[in-house]
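Late entry, guanosine-5'-monophosphate complex.
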Amino acid sequence: MAAETVFGKIISGEIPTTFLAETDRVVAFPDINPQAPVHILVIPKSTEYANVTELAAGDPTLLAEMVAVAKQLAAEHANGEYRLIFNNGASVGQTVFHVHAHIIANLEERSLVGF
Ligand code: 5GP
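Prediction complete; structure with ligand written out below:
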């Protein structure tokens, strides 16, 4: 079980957030500190999974739903191409321990280095 996080507060409405996409089990919203022209977070509404490893083992269908939402958002906000980043652990940059995918798109050529 993931500990209470800022994303749990976004899902509960405690932190008001405009959702760019929502399904029964997934929401997406802009990252508050964007690292690319398109930088959107996709998260499950469930607070059960702290990272993608736990999610893949526990509910692969939910992981697939997150990817489907990412595909849809990349078509709406970019040219359909996107990077999908899951930081998995503090030492590789994970700061929020509620599983989330970063959708990164509309990058300039060679701007991938360092992120
Ligand atoms: P991580 O480093 O855990 O992979 O990514 C967490 C992301 O959540 C960061 O990119 C950070 O900017 C974003 N973030 C943290 N707090 C908030 C918030 O309150 N609202 C939104 N929209 N994004 C947040």
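The longest helix spans residues 60-77. Will revisit in the morning.
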